[in-house]
């Protein structure tokens, strides 16, 4: 149960970090106040009612009001996730370096090839002293 909870928590935290850093743009096209098309990744399709700008002529100078509008909503994600080591004050830098140094050296053990009593010979056993004196520890 603990492993399952740990995996779910890890996945959800990774998903939160991913979603907080993603930025996207939503384009929308309105025609007369009614939403015609909305797009997340590309350009929106128009309704075909846009006013075409005509060359100004001396005969007629009538301006037509455009009923269509385009709207663009930009959602920007977070750019910086990691605090720089330079922004920490002196005490925090000292604590971080000491913690990292001791944590890395915590798991350094002795090599298996090192035998501390390799250069010492065991004492010679001439007689069994316990049997000789008939003293046994019980």
TrEMBL record:
Pfam family of the protein (one): DUF8199
Residues making up the signal peptide according to the UniProt record: 1-25
InterPro entries: DUF8199, HYC_CC_PP
Keyword Signal on entry: yes
Domain of life: Bacteria
Keywords tagged on the record: Signal
NCBIfam families: HYC_CC_PP (NF047658)
Protein name as it appears in the record: Secreted protein
Organism: Arenibacter antarcticus
Lineage, opening ranks: Bacteria, Pseudomonadati, Bacteroidota, Flavobacteriia, Flavobacteriales
């Amino acid at each position: 149960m603990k492993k399952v909870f740990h995996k779910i928590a890890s996945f959800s935290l990774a998903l939160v970090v991913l979603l907080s850093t993603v930025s996207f743009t939503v384009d929308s096209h309105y025609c007369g106040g009614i939403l015609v098309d909305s797009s997340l990744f590309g350009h929106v399709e128009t309704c075909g009612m846009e006013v075409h700008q005509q060359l100004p002529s001396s005969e007629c100078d009538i301006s037509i009001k455009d009923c269509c509008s385009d709207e663009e909503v930009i959602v920007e994600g977070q750019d910086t996730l990691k605090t720089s080591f330079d922004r920490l004050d002196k005490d925090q830098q000292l604590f971080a370096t000491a913690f990292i140094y001791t944590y890395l050296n915590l798991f350094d053990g002795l090599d298996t090839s090192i035998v501390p009593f390799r250069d010492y010979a065991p004492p010679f056993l001439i007689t069994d002293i316990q049997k000789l004196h008939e003293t046994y520890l019980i």
